[in-house]
UniProtKB/TrEMBL annotation:
Belongs to the cytochrome P450 family. The lineage of its organism: Eukaryota, Fungi, Fungi incertae sedis, Mucoromycota, Glomeromycotina. InterPro entries: Cyt_P450, Cyt_P450_CS, Cyt_P450_E_grp-IV, Cyt_P450_sf. Heme binds at residue 454. This is Cytochrome P450. The keyword Secreted does not apply. Its cofactor is heme. The chain crosses the membrane at residues 12-30. GO terms for molecular function: heme binding; iron ion binding; monooxygenase activity; oxidoreductase activity, acting on paired donors, with incorporation or reduction of molecular oxygen. Keywords: Heme, Iron, Membrane, Metal-binding, Monooxygenase, Oxidoreductase, Transmembrane, Transmembrane helix.
Amino acid sequence: MEKLIEILSSDIYIQSFIIGLILAAFLSKLSRRTKLNEPPLVYYRFPIIGHTWSFSKDCDKLILESREKYGETFSLYVFGQIMTIVGKETTHEVFRKDQDFSFREGFKTKVPLHLIVGDSVLDEENFKIVRDILGGQLKHLISRLQKNIIYAIDLHIGECVEPKVIHYPRKTLADIIAIPVANIIVGEECYNNEDMLETFKSLTFSLIKLFRIPPILSFIHPWLHQQIISIPLRFGWNPISNHRKVVLNRIKPVIEKRLYDKKKLGDDWVAPLDALQRYLDDPKVAPDFDPNNINYDYIVDGICRLVFGAMTTTSNHATQVLYDLVERKQQYWQELYQEAQEINKKCNGNELTFDDIASMVKLDSFVKESLRCDSDIVTLPHKCISKSYYTFANGYQVPSGRIVSLNYYDTNNDEELQGQNPTEFYAFRHLERNSPAIKLERNFLKFGGGKHACPGRTLAVNEIKMFIHKVLLKYDVRIDTKEIETKKDVGLVFENRKESVINI
C-alpha cells in the first residue's frame, strides 16, 4: 500500500510539474506581449488551449470572424504559441522583407524536414538549381516533358474505347506526374526505373506520417515537440531510409559513368540537363573526377527535398484543375477543346513548342482560377527573424521569433483585387486581365511572392497545361457519380473522344 501511495504521489507530482510548466510558459508569453504595440489578440474562452481547437477544426470560421471584428492584422493563441495573421494590405510586406521574415524558418516549425533529409541550407541550393534549370532552359526541356507526359497518360489511363473508371484520380495523377518530374530531377538514365518512380510517388507520404503527431508539447515550447518527434530518428529509424537507398543505388552508377565520360571526352562532353548534374557541377560536392570523393549523402538529401517540394504540389494542382474542368464541363469544356484543336492544327499534330504552350491563353486562365479558388485560408508561415522586433507599416509590432501567417482568403475574395464576384469560379477572369498563371501579382498568392517565390512554378504550370491539353484532345471525361461530394475520392470516367458527342 505504501508503495502504491508512493507511485501515485509520484504521478501527481509529475502531472503537477507539467501543468506548472505549461502555466508558467503561458503566463510568460502573455507578459511579453505588453512590451510592444502588438496586433490585437483575438478573445478566447479557455486558458492554455486558446484558439487551438477552433483553429484545427474550423479555421475558416475563426479567421473570417476574427478578420471582421479585429481588422486585417490580429493574433491567435495556437498550441501554446502566439501566431499573427496578416491580410491583403500586409501580405506583400512580409514577402518583400526577406531580411525580417523567413518562410524557410517558419516552415521548419511545422515540418522539421531538416531532421530527416539534411540541413535546411539545401533549400537555398535547391532553389538555385531549380531557378537555373528553368531560368532559360525550359524551352530545351519541353520536348522531354511532352514525351514523358504522353507516355505517362498512355501508361496510366491508356486507350478507353469503352468507358474506363479511374477510381482514385489523385493517385493516378501522381503516377503520371512522377514520370516527367523524375526525368528532370535525376536524368534520363535512371528516372524510369520502377523503384525510382515509386519513390517519387510515395516519399512525401512517408514523411508526412512523422508529422501527424499533434504538437501538444508545443504548449510548453516548440523545441520539446521537435525533440519528441525526432526520438525515432535518434534510434536509427528514418521514414524515408528505403527511398534514400533507392535514390543512391540508382544515381551512383549514373554519376560514375558521367564522371568517366567527362574525363575521357573533355570539352567534347555535353552535360545532361537535369538537377543531378547541377549537384555534380558543384566543386564542393564533386571536387574531381574520382567517384570515391563524391558527397553522395548531400546529393541524395537534395534530391529527396526536391521530390518533397515538387511532386505532391504539382500532382495535387493537376488533379484539382481536372476536377474543376469536369465539374464545370458544360460551361468551359467545349471552348477549351476548341482552343486545343486550333493549337494542335497549327503544329500539324506534332510536338508542341514552348510558344504553342504559351498560346494556350484560355487554358492558362482556367488553371490560374483553379489554383486561386483552391488556396488554403491561412498558409505560408513566416518566422520573424529581425534582431528584436519588426514594425509593420500599419504600426503593429511583432517580436523576433513570432510566426506570421498569411490570410489568403482576404486576398482571394477581395472584389477590388479580383473583380466582380470574387467568391465565384470564373475561368477567364485572368485572361481579361492579361495575367498568366506564372505571374506574381498582389491578387494571386498561390506561388508566394518576393525573391523566394516558388522557382518551379513555370515548370508546374506548363506540365499541367500539357496534361490537360492532351486530355482535352484524346478523351471525354465525366464524373462517376451525379455530383462531386468530396474532391478526394470521387472517380472519373474516361472515354476516347467522339468528335460529335460531348457528354454533360
